[in-house]
Predict the structure.
Amino acid sequence: MADAVAEALAGEEHLLVQAGTGTGKSLAYLVPSMLHSERVVIATATLALQHQLVERDLPRLVKAVKGEKGVDTSYAVLKGRSNYACLHRIREGVPDDQGVLVEVPEGTLGAEVLALRSWAEEQAESGGPGDKDHAPRHNDRTWRQVSVSARECLGATRCAYGEECFAERAKAKAADSQLVVTNHSLLAIDAIEGIPMIPEYDAVVVDEAHELVARVTQAATDELSANDVDRAARRARRHVEEADAPSNPADDLADAAESLRAAMSETEAGRLDRLPDIVAESIELVRDAARECVSAFARGPKDAPGEPDAGKAQAKAGVQEVFATAERLAANSENDVVWLSRPFGSGRDRIPDRLCVAPLQVWGQMRDRLLTESTVVFTSATLMLGGDFDVVASTVGLKPSERADRIGASDAAPAAKVDGDAAATSGVLPWRGLDVGSPFDYGRQGILYVARHLPPPGRDGLGAAQVDEIVRLIDAAEGRTLGLFSSRRAAEAAAEAVRERLPHLTTLAQGDAQLSELTRQFVGDPHTNLFGTLGLWQGLDVPGDTCQLVIIDRIPFPRPDDPLMSARQRAVDAAGGNGFMQVAATHAALLLAQGAGRLIRTVEDRGVVAMLDPRLATARYGRFLEASLPAMWRTTDPEIVVKALARLSASAEE
């Protein structure tokens, strides 16, 4: 893998590398990236991997090559501005919704804010990073009291504390480093939205690349609620009241918020293929009022030299954000998907109705704005879906027809080199795929059991037959079970049934406590089961006897009423493709591969992945899904599986 990455960087050719747990893929891309002649960006999806790179892998690598001539071992971590504490906000105060500075609140929130302020001052004095991941315990609401968004920031040249600014120091360090470690979202904003966030670079390594499309989509999704517009109007009122206008533009913006609230209340939730007239008109009112309000800021009183008004900057940023989102919604582009989200809840806990707008697809933007500008290495444990790289390559903007060769095949021949200028002219972006294999012997370490005898899953959640199967399997394993469910309701129903019928075992459900606490209990007692949804499918690493059985209740197809997925599926169908296979089945294959990957984490691990959905064995698309899973020994015989689990349990007790 290291050789392939080095060749890709030198030859300016994109590379997809599937590298499973235990292959050492981090070092396999860090070494050639450090040896590359120009700066390389390393983008990860999760904080856990970022910590692993910065706190373990990179320090070890730097120590190992220390003293080697000509090797630049410098590296830096770069995050979005809101991830860093803001010294101006900490020292000058936080404006309220009317732009007036407020005192620190009383109670627990106030105590946490004071602790964060003290910590930030210590970080400033010691030269620490000042980012939220190194901060004392806090929640998102508390962190907002000591941070600002990119729009709210006064700018280093206007801020009295610009030279001490944590975010500016991080950017400066990144500009002097060979490697810049960041996240998928910041990469998307920099490369795809064209907002400069990262110092100029030559190449990118995208780790956890199976997450990239979702993170890019998330970064390019905007939301608007009447409460957002109301808040922007309140903050703006004091700062535009002296502007040269017949009325206060902030009042017009507040009126537009009421119009939007009324329009959304009369509109059915879900995807809006065409904006209803009442919604379109209210969005236009918001857009026009916000535009006038932004103009009023420019006509109003100027800040005193050297004394920028933080409250004014925050208020203007809020109005600009409302304007940008309203303008995008009003455009009603065929390249966007719009839907009305109406969350559950009531009273003070109810989340307001929101209009959401997301890109119909992102592969085009990724191809035009990332892949044509930089060499990109994509790597993950799950990049081969249906047994091939073509599916994932297509989602990130690479065409199957552009694949240079089949690396590792005996008949592979070197492809003709297409240099950067020629590729740009011809529109060809050559790429290669490499599966480096795994240190695990899946055929001997794991069993994939498909419960073919069960009825297909219904819309009403778990049926009696599925519950009986879960109880029987867990009883044989004597706990040690990770249950991955398609819904919170199914996870809770299964947990309740297992607690009632197997009371001698401890059964935990996601939501009972923080995930870190649930994981600690799961690891601490082998006779424990942990049931949950998506957060466990991808984010849990529990090697050893803790987990010898992974239960998956059903194939994780996207919900039929998912506005974005259903729109993408329909668009593929309209273009002559197979929307179900290219969107729904691909989504399911990726999640299944991630879920099944929770079982075998070391060369000593043994166990069973039990799929309770018989469609994996009976449906035509089942072959595609199975080909995306680790090559475990397959069976549909429940008796074989029960006996295997009993033997594993007995062995673990010895």
Q: What stands out?
A: The mean pLDDT is 89. The CA atoms of residues 81 and 150 lie 6 Å apart. Residues 442-653 form a domain with the Rossmann fold fold (CATH 3.40.50.300). The chain has four domains: 2-74+177-216+362-435, 85-161, 222-357, 442-653.
